[in-house]
User: Fold this.
Amino acid sequence: MADEGFTHPRLAAFYDIQEGQRDDLDPYVAVAADLQAATVVDIGCGTGVLALMLTAQGIHVIAVDPALASLDIAKAKPGADTVRWIHGDARDLPPLQADLAVMTGNVAQAITDPADWAATLAHTHAALRPGGTLMFETRIPARKAWLDWNREQTHQVLDGTETWVDLLDVDGPLVTFRWTTVFPDGERLTSTSTLRFREREQLEADLTAQGFTVTDVRDAPDRPGREFVFLATKSA
Ligand SMILES: C[S@@+](CC[C@H](N)C(=O)[O-])C[C@H]1O[C@@H](n2cnc3c(N)ncnc32)[C@H](O)[C@@H]1O
Assistant:
């Protein structure tokens, strides 16, 4: 289930401001171009930044997210009427023969429940054509990104809005933290999230179990040494 940060209209509207320049999406655009993808599925599309970049290039994009407020932001953007937006998760995808499926912005980590993760991979597999590619990123557990998730290191003011993160709990691979956002009019909203940090071997096993072949595990150019970027193909 999506967190308040994506489901609350005011927080969802602030997401793009907070994320700023999306250099992290460039590798996904590059892979879509390399594959000459005609149809791309964007799972956990959020506010639709990548979906709109791809559709602007003439790619047919099907974008799915469980957070309605984020989808509403996406749908209001220029060019949005060329994307097929679906409120839900990978289980809600229609029959497709997609060339590429992506999960950007560490969506994979937001799917914490093992059964939900297995279902996401299974339904993504079903949405791809034989030989189609799944690409997603996930933080490398050994880098312990959560050590930086504290007020001192995350506090910032953007367009007069103050934000910071507090780490709440680390329970094995599950890390829980809380974003606080204070808007210029004084409204203070919080959003608590839990992410699952999966090891490379676990991800390879999960993908293999759902009929994928892992073809590459790359670095994220904008976050060197901090992310696994998986590419896996649907076996014919
Ligand atoms: C950090 S945002 C990333 C959004 C977008 N991919 C991006 O790069 O800007 C994580 C997204 O994952 C979505 N999400 C949470 N649980 C999900 C699930 N089970 N399936 C698909 N998306 C999910 C959230 O609603 C949220 O939009």
Summary: The CA atoms of residues 107 and 114 lie 14 Å apart.
